[in-house]
Design brief:
Blueprint lengths: L1 H18 L1 E2 L2 E2 H9 E6 L6 E2 L5 E14 L17 H11 L4 H8 L8 E3 L9 H8 L6 E10 L7 H4 L2 E3 L9 E3 L2 H5 L1 H5 L3 E6 L13 E3 L6 E4 L3 H18 L1 E10 L5 E7 L17 H4 L9 H10 L8 E3 L2 E4 L2 E4 L8 E3 L3 H4 L2 H11 L1 H10 L17 E2 L4 H7 L5 E2 L2 H12 L4 E2 L4 E5 L6 E4 L4 E3 L4 H16 L16 E8 L14 E9 L6 E10 L6 H18 L15 E2 L8 H10 L3 E5 L5 E5 L5 E2 L4 E6 L13 H11 L3 E4 L3 E5 L13 E6 L2
Parallel strand pairs: 4-12, 29-32, 33-35
Antiparallel strand pairs: 1-2, 3-10, 4-5, 5-6, 5-7, 8-9, 10-11, 12-22, 13-14, 13-27, 15-18, 16-17, 19-20, 21-24, 22-23, 25-26, 26-27, 28-31, 30-32, 34-35
Helix pairs in contact: 3-4, 9-18, 9-20, 11-13, 11-14, 11-17
């Protein structure tokens, strides 16, 4: 019997040894799974940069804090590695986490006494590197951190809805990836993400990695870097101007866009409402990019296209008289904004006066078919194909004669803002229509090689060069003629051409809303009018505090922005001082903070450091500019954006600080800073208005 047992046992062991299976389980595979550990190696997500290489979005880390409370936890040399003095730890954590000492103690004393470790709820998640380091510096036994991938937006509110944000696939998993969920981050998510790698190590039965164990590794492929066409200097200034108008007049929606008319490159684009990508403040009210995702009736800026079509089709006689005030079309009465009109006037005055009746006259003279042909040439009702997610195509209501007439002054037609910029470019470029661009190039993060470059793209020639020149002259008259509707946009020493717009807003109950503020007010400008380098387009919907005329409100953005566009790149001061007495500003981007500071001081300049980082991501003045010795160069680092000590800074320095950070700064007095409402070292992410007081020495 015993012999039979040993024979059976031998046969069984032999079978297992040969087949490496027991009861259908692959023992080799089971052993491999037990003693091998596979870990994901996250790829570095590519950076998003401005046209000059200044960082807009980059890889970062956040931290979750937890506490080991099991007395079995030991360090490698056998010392206790758990929280011993819970009261002391709770008191310290309550200073850094948004919880009380009592709440911290409740977490540290769970009902399950056998629990190995505890977390601190939402209050212990998503900590910044600065906060993590502050807690870690207290050397509290048992307090641990888990590093998680995140995204850094060092400029705060900066074309936020266009750039977009990311979201972690699993907010508590160290191997979690982040994905773009809005804007550029979403549209180019695959290109930015790269490809994760894999690492396999051998470990013992307790899960510890075995020394000198073989590592099988599949390298991660980092994501590409995306260079946008945005110019940080112009973008930051646009943000400041837009926020000032938002604070004063509370519009329901505001859009500001600057496009290089020669190339189609968008150099600045912002909207209100918007949100802070670091704190998330305002996100629930601004979960879309209105520049492409919202469609609206453009109003009188559409008259740029109407006038273009009438001239180009041979249906425009500037000396022809028409009766202004009102006109009957089908069963609808169409009025001028001045209901009484201006009597019988030449059609040449219709555009600068912004006469709806005059535009209807031109549309009827062209005929509906011809007018529709030109709208199609201008690609109204078609997506531009700009590389942003969610673009809407808009549309044209053209069934009735009254609809056809109303499209001539921007009603019964829906567009998006980028679509209008594209159409305006045909006038700016003497007939050639340029596709708006937001991407400059794509660069391989590993090799530094440019993978793709985006160049100016002509998408049509809807009008002749001669027509475009005549329309630009008419836009200049809007500013210069005593009856022009855009006289407030007259910028000294700049030959600006504009078209103003006031579009009614459709009511949910049919028809249009009434009331002095229930409009979309707009201005489209070409700078300079005769050979435009820039197109500036601003729209503002329903200002709730309309204490000024809509034109005056929009001019608070348009005029200073135009001045900045014209003056950028020129020397800050014009004098007869020899050029050798100026200092040429070098590029300090990507330099360490210490190296950049020493470089600035060696050039007889002053440094103004913003943030806690060790690398420079933005500078003002920009490289290539000339300044007088002794001037301050403001540098933004890649760390948390913190308030510097502004003591002794000039008003010009403070304005640089506001431009670089995008913060709302109010100055009181002149001279040099003597006090500031926000203490040095305070994080700027959610600081609100900053008041700086200056006095002459």
């Amino acid at each position: 019997m015993t012999a039979l047992f040993f024979i059976a046992l031998t046969v069984r062991f032999t079978s297992i040894a040969i087949s490496k299976q027991y009861n259908g389980v692959n023992l080799a595979q089971r052993t491999k799974m037990k003693y091998e550990h596979s870990a994901t190696v996250n790829a570095h997500r590519g950076e998003i940069l401005d046209t000059n290489g200044e960082m807009i979005a980059g890889d970062s880390s956040i931290y979750n804090i937890y506490a080991v409370i099991s007395h079995s936890a030991k360090t490698e040399d056998g010392k206790p590695d758990y929280v011993k003095n819970k009261s002391k730890v709770a008191k310290i954590l309550s200073k850094y986490l948004p919880i009380s000492k009592k709440q911290a103690l409740e977490y540290l004393n769970p009902k399950n006494k056998k629990q190995y470790q505890v977390e601190f709820g939402q209050s212990g998640r998503g900590l910044s590197i600065e906060m993590k380091n502050k807690i870690a510096s207290k050397n509290l036994p048992g307090i641990k951190f888990v590093e998680l991938p995140s995204r850094s937006y060092p400029n705060g509110v900066f074309a936020t809805n266009l750039v977009g944000i990311t979201q972690a696939n699993n907010a508590n998993d160290v191997n979690s990836n982040i994905s773009g969920v809005m804007g550029i981050e979403k549209y180019f998510n695959k290109m930015l993400s790269g490809t994760n790698g894999k690492k396999i190590t051998k470990q013992d039965s307790n899960g510890n990695e075995l020394p000198n164990s073989q590592i099988v590794e599949k390298n991660a492929i980092d994501g590409n870097n995306i260079y946008l066409t945005l110019n940080s200097r112009i973008q930051q200034y646009a943000e400041i101007l837009a926020q000032n108008v938002q604070d004063k007049y509370s519009p329901k929606n505001l859009q500001v866009i600057v496009m290089n008319s020669k190339t189609g490159q968008i150099e600045a684009a912002t909207q209100r409402p918007t949100f802070n990508p670091t704190t998330g403040k305002g996100l629930t009210d601004s979960w879309r990019d209105t520049l492409v995702e919202d469609q609206y009736e453009p109003g009188s800026v559409m008259k740029i296209l109407t006038l273009s079509a009438a001239i180009d089709s041979g249906n425009y006689d500037p000396n022809e008289l028409y009766q202004s005030g009102s006109v009957e079309v089908g069963s609808r009465t169409i009025n001028d904004w001045n209901d009484a009109g201006w009597g019988s006037i030449p059609i040449s005055e219709a555009f600068p006066r912004s006469s709806n009746v005059g535009m209807v006259h031109l549309e009827e003279k062209m005929g509906a078919d011809t007018w529709m042909k030109y709208m199609k040439r201008f690609k109204i009702g078609e997506k531009t194909g700009i590389q942003l997610p969610g673009e809407v195509s808009g549309g044209i209501s053209f069934e009735h004669a009254s609809d056809q007439a109303m499209t001539s002054f921007g009603q019964s037609v829906n567009v998006n803002a980028i679509q209008m910029l594209q159409a305006f470019s045909a006038v700016a470029n003497n007939g050639k229509m340029i596709k708006p661009q937001i991407i400059k190039k794509v660069v391989n993060d590993t090799t530094g090689k440019t993978e793709k470059t985006y160049k100016a793209e002509t998408v049509g020639e809807p009008i002749s060069s001669d027509t475009a020149k005549k329309v630009k002259k008419a836009m200049r008259q809007v500013v210069t003629k005593k009856y022009g509707t855009g006289q407030v946009y007259n910028v000294p020493d700049v030959k600006v051409g504009v078209k103003t717009g006031t579009a009614q807003i459709a009511s949910e109950n049919g028809g249009y809303l009434t009331g002095t503020n229930n409009y979309i007010f707009s201005v489209a400008g070409m700078i300079p009018y005769d050979d435009p380098n820039y197109i500036v387009y601003i729209t503002m919907k329903q200002p709730q505090e309309m204490t000024e005329s809509p034109e005056k409100i929009l001019s608070e953005i348009f005029n200073p922005l135009v001045t900045r566009l014209v003056n950028q790149g020129s020397s800050p001061t014009k004098s007869n001082i020899p050029g050798s007495q100026y200092v040429n500003i070098p590029s300090l981007l990507n330099s360490t903070t210490d190296k950049a500071t020493k470089k600035i001081e060696s050039m007889d300049l002053q440094a103004g450091i913003i943030g806690t980082g060790d690398k420079i991501v933005q500078q003002l003045p920009a490289s290539g500019e000339k300044v007088m010795p002794g001037q301050r160069i403001v540098l933004l680092t890649n760390g948390a954006m913190t308030m510097p000590d502004l003591s002794g800074w000039s008003k010009n320095d403070v304005l640089k600080f506001a431009e670089v950070t995008g913060k709302h700064v109010t100055t009181k007095g002149d001279g040099y800073v003597v006090s500031q409402s926000l203490k040095a070292g305070h994080v700027l992410n959610d600081s609100g208005k900053i008041i700086v007081t200056l006095k002459n020495k």
